[in-house]
Fold this protein.
Amino acid sequence: MSQTAIDLTPRAARAPHVIAIASGKGGVGKTNLTANLAVALASRGLRVCVLDADLGLANLDVLYGLSPERSLRDVVRGECRLSDVLVEGPEGVRVIPAASGFEELTRLGADEQLRLLSEVDALEDDVDVLLVDTAAGISSNVLYFTAAAADALIVITPEPTSLTDAYALVKVLATRYGRREFLVAVNMAAGAVDAEAAFARLARVAERFLRVRVEYQGYVPYDDAVPRAVREQLPVLLAAPGAPASRALVQLAERLAARPPSTPTGGVQFFFRRLLAEGRRS
Ligand SMILES: Nc1ncnc2c1ncn2[C@@H]1O[C@H](COP(=O)(O)OP(=O)(O)OP(=O)(O)O)[C@@H](O)[C@H]1O
Ligand SMILES: [Mg+2]
């Protein structure tokens, strides 16, 4: 067995890229997109962590077939370390279950905040991408997570209600939180033309009335392989790698990976600092 004398593993050359996955309307496929993008990015050799920030049902765990026993709340309370909370999903994707702890996160005292920040600091050198799966809508929790991330990937479907709800989300993020750039992915599209038309409808009004930049990242077709995979508690990329949705998800991941963060400052620490600051302001 050969041994290398020098560790050639590249260290992260820059801060981890934090991307929040958000939508106005519920059920558009955020959690599936997050779970699969994470797997696709991890199979490209990136170190991926997913923060499950959906306060409702802990869907991400279910999709990965995991049942975490602890959450970020236990870290904040000083009951365990962040490493005890992280659970490993497919392809080495690490999941931070945060769902049940978020309300408390916004009301932390100074000591607790410091404890949390020093724990998440460990991720800074250990992660290339942090994906944040948020809940649908424009409740303040969703907004904090999305406002704090370097990038916001807004998921829409071609349905008119999804577009109007996405516009409402972009509007509040732009006017209240000053976000000027948005990434958009279209899910459950009939095909490329359908997806691009949906994107164009959102882009037109957002650029015209809100003066923000919206950037198309790609689409995922409607594909029965997705709900089938959900029933198997597997990301579709692993359950059916050749399915049209899986191929599209790989392309979407490649496009995202090739893209530098919209906000050059960033990283995990920065994300949590902003998250805590937003919580205090409310
Ligand atoms: N490309 C697709 N083709 C077909 N079905 C899909 C596709 N993407 C997602 N679905 C189905 O849509 C449903 C909702 O997906 P998912 O839970 O990922 O949405 P969500 O946006 O996270 O929902 P919520 O707002 O409740 O968090 C799931 O049952 C899933 O199987
Ligand atoms: Mg979800």
In short: The two ends are 58 Å apart (CA to CA). The chain has 13 helices and eight strands.
